[in-house]
Amino acid sequence: MTINPPLASFSLVGSQTLSVVLKDALWAQKAYSFTITVVNTEPTFSSALPSTAVDANVGASTSYSLPSMSDFEGHTITVSYTLLTAGNTFTTFDSASNKFIFAPLTNAAVGTFTIQVTLKDGGTFKTS
To answer: Mind listing the domains of the chain with CATH numbers?
Structure first.
């Protein structure tokens, strides 16, 4: 049996054509072709991110831990974030613990601030 292309080349997302040629001892042969669609499922949180208010007092720090994450294909997940509100200079993210740390130093940091969180796996899909 001959498989073309080799199975190891199916790491790409998208449709691939697989050709299989079966031969017997007398060299009689029959060829078959299949189309295989390789998908990449986007990474997810174990629970939805709540629209949560985190109280952070001036001069103190508080934190928020992201829920656990998973990827169906087992890819490594990268977390990134965007501070969507101007003036948010007191938020950091600890990627080792998947935790946001809020440490406002002055009253100028009082208000509501929005953060967009994005998960990315080794493929092409993101979820925010």
So the answer is: 2-38 (no CATH), 44-127 (2.60.40.10)
